[in-house]
Design a protein that fits this description.
The complex is a heterodimer of chains A (390) and B (162). With 390 residues, chain A is an alpha+beta fold. Chain A has helices at residues 2-28, 31-43, 47-103, 193-196, 268-273, 282-321, 344-347; strands at residues 107-114, 123-126, 139-142, 145-153, 158-162, 170-174, 180-185, 199-205, 215-218, 230-238, 246-253, 262-266, 330-331, 337-338. Chain A has 3 domains: 40-103; 104-279, Rod shape-determining protein MreC, domain 2 (Thrombin, subunit H, Beta Barrel); 288-320 and 344-387, no CATH class. Chain A has 7 helices and 14 strands. Chain A has a 6-stranded antiparallel beta barrel with strand order 1-2-5-4-3-12. In chain A, strands 6-7-8-11-10-9 form a 6-stranded antiparallel β-barrel. A two-stranded antiparallel ribbon of chain A has the order 13-14. Chain B has helices at residues 3-27, 35-44, 49-64, 73-92, 97-119, 124-157. Classes of the chains: A alpha+beta (390), B mainly alpha (162). Chains A and B meet through helix 1, helix 2 and helix 3 of A and helix 1, helix 3 and helix 4 of B.
Chain lengths: 390, 162
């Protein structure tokens, strides 16, 4: 038994050695000699497995392609979202640059960090402080208009209240200065956030009625906010207990404080020197438009008068040149010529000798054909019949 | 070993070979599962060492037929691993999941060493990186997959050779 086992072990060992030698020989023989063996295996025993592997690799390739496509779609969508945000930020920064160029001096650009705490929901943390020249009370503005004012200053940062803060007050006026009032946050009974961000313009004299849509500007009274900074636009009048002697208007702010990221802090000297002209006031725009319209009207009127004079002159000239037609002389029953009743229109052609500059009876301008005749076509000028009274 | 065990073992090995050519490319892992080695060890431990060596040589040549440049390297490695698995199984005479997992881990690692030495595909730091990092990871993954397969297929493979 033991001998048989030893024999089996030797046989196993011998088989192992033979297999090992075969594998070594196969591994070291040149490629040209190995390829026929491999090809034979691929085309016989391994053919179904090769087909399975090809199918699996196709599935894998499709899976990877689908994943790559999904990743590409996701990244494109992400970029699209980022592009919209970047466009908005770019537009805001461009407006801020425009505001900076109009202010020209005396301002500090800053980033506005919105307070996350619930205790002070209407404050902004600004990334500029006393080292940049910011002082307490400096107005904070955006390209669209007023944002708030600085209430606390540190060397590198400052804190500002927005116009929605309960402590915010400023004098306000309409662009034509027909109405003045005090703008403060709207703390109405409606406690929804959208209403809470509105403003009230109080104390407007009862005789000053402001239409909805009218732009309200800082009046500059009180010294904090310079005259001409836009505050918002009037939404409607709201009833108040003092409604018998003054009016109160609901004002929609020009700036959405939730979207403010970059602001300008105007320093005291610049605020004191005034910012009129930095923001376009509606009255100036209206007056400019009216001026343009008036200038256009005057030009049109002058042109019409010139054309009218030319038409009159052409009529007179043609009338002077026209021969007296014989068939226009009527005769009575005795054969005597009968002249028509002297009307201004008919008299003119019958007096060729009369100087054209002084017609005896000039037809009223409203009866002349309003279509002016071209100067180089006098034959087409209306004849005397067109000037005959009707 | 009776015919029933032979047939069951053959079926299990065939399933593992098919998985090697379907699931492995589908997963596409860098440290992939070597189902062929699992099939080799599962079969070898149920064979005599000499037969296991032949079985390893044939399985290796089948795998090598798809890679002409390394033709023979897998045959060499699987011959060694097959014979060693059968011999060590006979020596230790144990049959538990942990020992099978250990055989699979060591077998895969030794196979990789022999394969990359014989194929001369990698040299220098790449060779050592493969043997020190990727081969152990692949061996571990293969051992885990083998243990899982053994657990699932135990009803089929419950009859073992003496």
């Amino acid at each position: 038994m033991a001998r048989s086992s030893r024999f089996s072990s030797r046989v196993d060992l011998a088989v192992f050695v033979v297999c090992l030698l075969a594998a070594l020989i196969i591994a070291v023989i040149p490629g040209q000699a190995r390829e026929p063996i491999a090809r034979t295996l691929r085309r016989s025993v391994m053919a179904p497995l090769v087909a399975l592997q090809s199918g699996a690799e196709r599935w894998r390739a499709a899976w990877v392609a689908a994943e790559r496509e999904a990743v590409t779609r996701d990244s494109l969508a992400l970029k699209a979202f980022s592009a919209a945000a970047l466009e908005a930020e770019n537009a805001q920064l461009r407006r801020l640059l425009g505001l900076g160029s109009r202010l020209d001096w005396g301002f500090v650009p800053a980033e506005a960090v919105h307070s996350a705490g619930r205790a002070e929901p209407f404050t902004l943390t600004l990334t500029a402080g006393s080292r940049a020249g910011v002082t307490v009370g400096s107005p904070v503005v955006a390209p669209e208009g007023l944002v708030g004012k600085v209430v606390s200053v540190d060397p590198t940062m400052s804190i500002a209240i927005t116009f929605s803060h309960v402590d915010f007050r400023t004098s306000a006026m309409t662009a034509d200065e027909s109405a003045f009032g005090i703008v403060s946050p709207h703390l109405g009974e409606e406690e929804s956030d959208s209403v809470r961000y509105l403003l009230e313009m109080r104390g407007v004299p009862y005789r000053s009625q402001v239409r909805p849509g009218t732009i309200v500007y800082a009046a500059g009274i009180g010294g904090v906010f310079s005259r001409g900074i836009p505050i918002g636009s009037v939404l409607r009048e709201i009833p108040t207990p003092e409604g018998s002697w003054s009016r109160t208007y609901l004002v929609r702010p020009a700036v959405n404080p939730g979207l403010v990221n970059s602001v300008m802090i105007i320093n005291t000297q610049r605020a004191n020197s005034g910012v009129e002209g930095v923001w376009q006031m509606t009255t100036a725009l209206d007056s400019a438009v009216r001026g343009v319209v008036a200038a256009g009207d005057s030009v049109v009127r002058a042109d019409s008068a010139a054309r009218l004079a030319a038409a009159r002159q052409a009529i007179l000239d043609s009338a002077a040149r026209a021969p007296r037609p014989a068939d226009t002389v009527r005769v009575d029953s005795l054969g005597r010529p009968v002249t028509a009743p002297p009307t201004p229109a008919q008299v003119v052609p019958q007096r060729p000798a009369a100087p054209p500059a002084q017609p005896p009876a000039q037809p009223p301008a409203r009866r002349v054909n309003p279509q002016p005749a071209p100067a180089d076509t006098p034959a087409q000028v209306p004849t005397a019949d067109t000037t005959r009274p009707r | 070993m009776n015919w029933g065990v032979i047939v069951r073992t053959a079926i299990v090995c065939a399933i593992l070979v098919v998985l090697h050519f379907t699931l492995r490319p589908l997963l596409g892992w860098r440290a992939s599962i070597d189902f062929l080695l699992i099939a080799l060890v599962f079969g070898a431990v149920r064979m005599r060492p000499g037969v296991a060596a032949v079985y390893g040589l044939l399985l290796g040549l089948a795998a090598d037929s798809l890679a002409v440049n390394t033709f023979g390297a897998s045959g060499l490695g699987m011959t060694v691993v097959g014979y060693a698995s059968s011999y060590l199984k006979a020596v230790f005479f144990a049959d538990n999941v942990a020992l099978n997992g250990f055989f699979l881990f060591v077998g895969k690692w030794i196979f990789d060493v022999i394969f990359f030495l014989a194929s001369r595909q990698l040299t220098g730091s790449d060779f050592w990186l493969q043997l020190a990092v990727w081969s152990p990871i692949s061996a571990a993954v293969t051992a885990l997959a083998g243990v899982l397969a053994l657990t699932l297929l135990r009803p089929v493979l419950e009859a073992r050779t003496a």
